[in-house]
Amino acid sequence: MAADIHLYSAATMNGYKPIIFLEEAGVSYDLTPIDFSKQEQKADWYLELNPNGRIPTIVDRGNDDFTVFESGAILWYLAEKYGQFLSDDPKPRSETLQWLMFQMAGIGPMMGQAMYFQRIAAPNGQEEPFSIQRYVAESRRLLEVLDRRLQGRDYLVGDAYSIADIATYPWARAYPWAKVSVEGLDALQAWFARIDGRPAVQRALQKPKAVPAFWGAGDDSAFLAENAARFAGDVKA
Ligand SMILES: N[C@@H](CCC(=O)N[C@@H](CS)C(=O)NCC(=O)O)C(=O)O
Predict the structure, then answer these.
(1) 54 CB less than 6 Å from ligand 1?
(2) Is residue 182 helix, strand or coil?
């Protein structure tokens, strides 16, 4: 029998989030990797599932093929479906959703732009120091907010690992890829180590493929070239 959840994803910060959830929850799922080099995320069949033409997306075969896009909404949906990683108690539930929104509206977009201007624009001949400075400084500020929140706490909402941690970890942990310093952010670094140590997270980060360069490991030159080439069309002549 097919698994309920059919996930369309790729090896990116947003793409890893539902994979981490599903590995942590220990439920079976089917994963279809979306190949950006073939622009599969813009294909008509995919746009029927995700009008934004981006990953990730889930289809819940166990719920009339109900489709969910936007990684934060996907985590929320999965948390409710499987009754995991989101408290039923109104206050911790609201706190979890607050930190989930903080990731979706802050950490993700800002670190994403820090990555874009340093890892994609610059190698394509568009060095923009003003943009780099803006997004790196804002990313660092947001990581300091996380660090303050994590002082005296194991996870973003008290002692319980939640969808707020699952959403935030891939972005914040990719600070080497975004070239944002975490120096002096001891509580944040301890939280990284705590989540790095979760076997489900390590399994998830191998799917659909491992990208050691995100986490500051391994030689990133091949990945950097491949990634920059994918966006070369963004550069105006
Ligand atoms: N807010 C969306 C962002 C999704 C997103 O930006 N996905 C990227 C990968 S991390 C993507 O699909 N990029 C391909 C493209 O832009 O065509 C979410 O959280 O799901």
Answers:
(1) yes
(2) coil
